[in-house]
Amino acid sequence: MDSATGAMGSLLLKLGELAMDEYNLQKGVKRNVEALRREMESMQAALRKVGDAPSDQLDEQVELWARDVRELSYDADDVVDTFMVRVRVDDDNHGSKWMVMNKVAGFLRKAKTRHDIADEIKGIMERAREVAARRDRYKVDAVVARFNNGAAAAATGGCDPRLYGLYRDEAELVGIDEASDELMNALATETVVSVVGGGGLGKTTLARAVCNRLKPQFDCTAFVSVSSAPDIKKVFKDMLLELDKTKYKDIHNLVRDEKQLIDELRDFIQNKRFPHACRYLIVIDDIWDIASWSAIRCALVENNDGSTIIATTRDFDIAEQIGSHKLKTLPPKSSKKLFYGRIFGSEDKCPQELVEVSGKILKKCGDVPLAIITIASVLARIRNMAEEWYKVYNSIGYGLGNNHDMKNMRKILSLSYHNLPSHLRTCLLYLSIFPEDYEIERSRLIRMWISEGFIHPEKDGDNLFELADNYFNELINRSLIQPSGYVSGMPHSCRVHDMIHDLIRSLSSKENFVTVLDGISQQTSPASKVRRLSLQNNKLDNSTAQTNLKMSQVRSLSIFSSSGVSLLPSLSSFQVLRVLDLENCYLTEGCHLDLRHVCNLFHLRYLRLYECNFDRELLKEIENLKFLQTLIVKREVRLPSTIVELKRLMFLHVHTDTILPEGMDNLTLLEELSLIDINKSPNFAKELRNLMKLRELELFWGEMNESLEEALIESLCNLHRIQNLQIFPFGNSSLDFIGERWMPSVYLQRFVATGSSRFTIVPAWIRKNPSLLTNLTNLSIKLQELRQEDLKALGRLPALLNLRLYADRSECLLTCVGEFCCLRSFNLRSRDSLRLTFHQGAMPRVQRVLLSFHVQDGNGDFDFGLENLLSLEHADVFLSQTTGTIDNDMEMERAKSALRHAALIHPNHPTLEIH
Q1: Higher local confidence (pLDDT), 329 or 670
Q2: Which long-range contacts (CB under 8 A, 24 or more apart) does 858-862 make?
Q3: CA distance to 235, 755, 822, per residue, from 701 (Å)
Q4: Could you confirm whether the keyword Coiled coil appears in this record (predicted)?
Q5: Is this prediction's pTM over 0.85?
Q6: Helix (H) or strand (E) holding 236
Q7: Residue 762 to residues 302, 585, 742, 744, 806: CA-CA distances in angstroms?
Q8: Is the CB of residue 553 less than 8 Å from the CB of residue 71?
Q9: Using CA atoms, how far apart are residues 27 and 14, in angstroms rounded to an integer?
């Protein structure tokens, strides 16, 4: 599906399928279907050309025509899809248990269904002819043909091999040193300072950089975002979690009002766990109103101990009340370094014929970092020809150098948007369903894209999830989304920059792609039909509802809090709903949004109930959801035995207390399955062997017996496509049965085994021939003993990026040149003393190291050779000791001194944190 062409892509596929003999349409109806398909193909081509042009360069009549065609495509797609759903549901329900009368009734019902589709197709054809006539009348093709901004570029296939490097922030830190020094000087005399400036100037980047520089001087630090629709309770909870991740690890699961949270913050700041009041550094990012700042300021009590608060805001009035530090644009020299670095690597590599036009483009960008990064991403993907670059230059709005308002910035961002291939535009616009500053889980977004029909295989055998994963990576490469929430060194989620978010919300509204109700700025489409609805604000009430909106053709419904539920009609009104995503909704008995209707949403492809309160019997008629692809329920729910009839299910994530029924091996399309307690569902260990398309699997168990071991190993050996296997064994049994008797597939990318159970030594499937595991990038295991020979075997894993080892004891360990050649993160925790040496040239790319060990008399000289890790940027060291004797205290100080010396003499001067 393409946002510019509405539902045209999926409609054309369905029309082709509809003409096949299996639907038994009359010849006249088939002819109409084929004629409609040809007409829609022609309209799709015209719509794509319209979509390539910025809307401010299009004739208003062309825009109106394009809007009407998109709406027609949605209506036609709903008509055809409804017919197909009804036919397939009837076919699925037509079993041997039916009596003759039921079969007759089914035949009559199908006949009426086919008669209805004939009438509907006739009506759609009439609308299509009228729209086609207006296309000729408005001369749409001629108008669009005159548009040529020269900035369109072919999409690049697959994932950029430089993706990992793009996750690092160096490019965005260009020119930050001077601004950082200025802010540090301001903080020398003021305890509360705001960084103020327009969007895209790098306020957040500057605040984070200064926070990192100052962090060693404070007892605790926190960096929290507020946003334009602030949830102050969430801000306070985020702050507490950042200040003490151990004490407040469950804070988001607790019910607290604002006063309780303010009291908790004030108590923590004045806490007695330090010999003095807590000396804190807190960054409050993106404050939009005085009320939010006032509430936050109440919680952050001044303790006269050198604590510091940094706030960022776009509002100069707010900054004036806080204490203002105006952020300047980049110096021209830094702008050039950022611009040329993004495109060529450095300024001296820029071809001579592009120097002049580059200067002109930079001037238009007005030394605004986001503008420079955005336009550089566009230029990097077109040919290095001055003529093409001048076309890009001429397409950027004038006056940006003197005016930093949002309108001019949007022109640059819109250029980046229109440079995207059509399928990526759709995927990007879809992010407008999420609130501002929301952390969007990568896998969740990809599943929604698939359920919406945005992802189509490019060739036979393509996996939709992997294809969508490439789309996600491409949006990162193009600087349109920001990676976040790293897991094992790779982004688990993403955020959308405020300016990009503003742009895509505006575009989504204009194209009637997403309708957002947030109680603040009602960016809804002028069209009365809602296609995708997102309720985003926890303060929505009936006064903000737009009662003229028609809900019957909503394809996607996302609700991010309970307060918006009362605005909606019954779920039974959402007749063509494909995606239902509910978060933090309390759906108790008598609630306006009655989830008992959910199993009658026959079109539903995606159902996610996250942190929602509802009847655990909710899904008892789940077999009605014949087309369901994704089911995510993050609380205990009783799954009926009929779930095994959902033959199209691809992603199933349930609570660990959920019991799976027998027959799960019927779900042969499953690709993801978590978190399954195989003790509660003992038959599942055997049935697992037939789920041969599984890519991701998470298993949990308490105790393991011999028969369960046999069944599990037999199943694991049959999963030839497994990429991510995570096991959480909390019994006392050994994991050696997996280590010795399982040989993973070559596709394995991640293996995690945590809990109380351990391998005796490194698994045999690593020891015997590590070179065969060519895709294994992330490994986390617990061992009774870590031997030198096993560490060498781990070092020969060809693609390993992140390694976590937990060892009860270890030999004297050495890492040498030629081992761990790709490793970025090394984590070794030992319950005993640690004798480890990094030789010069070892782990040449490792950036982060975490060591945890026991300090006792006779440990050695604590010279680990950290200075030999040439790419090291950060080291965390956790030290523990049994007793507090004088000798042990001296040994502890000796260990700390040796570690500090290693960081001091390291050429990179990495940050060192000793815990």
Answers
A1: 670
A2: 858/833, 859/833, 859/834, 859/835, 859/891, 859/895, 860/833, 860/835, 861/898, 862/894, 862/895, 862/898, 862/899
A3: 36, 10, 33
A4: yes
A5: no
A6: helix 232-243
A7: 52, 45, 13, 14, 11
A8: no
A9: 17
Q: Are 388 and 382 in contact (CB under 8 A)?
A: yes
Q: How far apart are the first and last CA of the chain?
A: 51
Specify whether the CB–CB gap between 196 and 179 falls below 8 A: no
Nearest to 199 by CA among 327, 35, 50, 62: 327
Give the integer Cα–Cα distance in Å for 535 and 538: 9
Q: Give the Cα separation of 322 and 195 in Å (integer).
A: 10
Residues 796, 527: Cα–Cα separation, whole Å: 60
Q: How far is it, in rounded angstroms, from Cα 715 to Cα 723? A: 15
List, in sequence order, every beta strand (DSSP E) within 831-873: 836-838, 848-854
Token code pair at residue 527: 């069209």
Residue 624 has pLDDT above 70, yes or no: yes
Instruction: Report residue 196 as tokens.
Output: 């103020």
Helix H or strand E encompassing 122 = helix 100-138
pLDDT for residue 712: 96
The number of residues making up the chain comes to 915
The full DSSP string for 706-735 is HHHHHHHHHHHTT-TT--EEEEEE-SS--S
Contacts 24+ apart (CB under 8 A), 817-825: 817/841, 817/842, 819/792, 819/795, 819/843, 820/794, 820/795, 820/846, 821/845, 822/798, 824/164, 824/489, 824/848, 825/488, 825/489, 825/801, 825/849, 825/850
- The DSSP code sequence of 325-367 is EEPPPPPHHHHHHHHHHHHTSSGGGS-GGGHHHHHHHHHHHTT
Strands (E), 241-307: 280-287
List the structure tokens of 251. 């804070």
Helix %, strand %, coil % of the chain (to 5): 45, 15, 40
Q: Cis (ω within 30 of 0) for the bond into 675? A: yes
Cα–Cα distance between 851 and 879 in angstroms, integer? 8
Single-letter residue type at 400: L
Query: pLDDT confidence of 526, banded at 50, 70, 90?
Result: very low
Distance CA 521, CA 546 (A): 12
Structure tokens belonging to residue 383: 């040919």
Contacts of 532 (CB under 8 A, 6+ apart): 430, 433, 513, 514, 515, 554, 555, 556, 557, 558, 579
CA distances from 888 to 851, 876, 879, 895 (A): 19, 21, 12, 10
Long-range contacts for 240-247 (Cβ within 8 Å, ≥24 apart)?
A: 240/264, 240/265, 240/268, 243/268, 243/280, 244/220, 244/268
Compute φ and ψ for 553, nearest 5 degrees: -115, 25
Edge-to-edge strand order for the sheet containing 280-287? Answer: 220-225, 280-287, 308-313, 192-196, 324-326
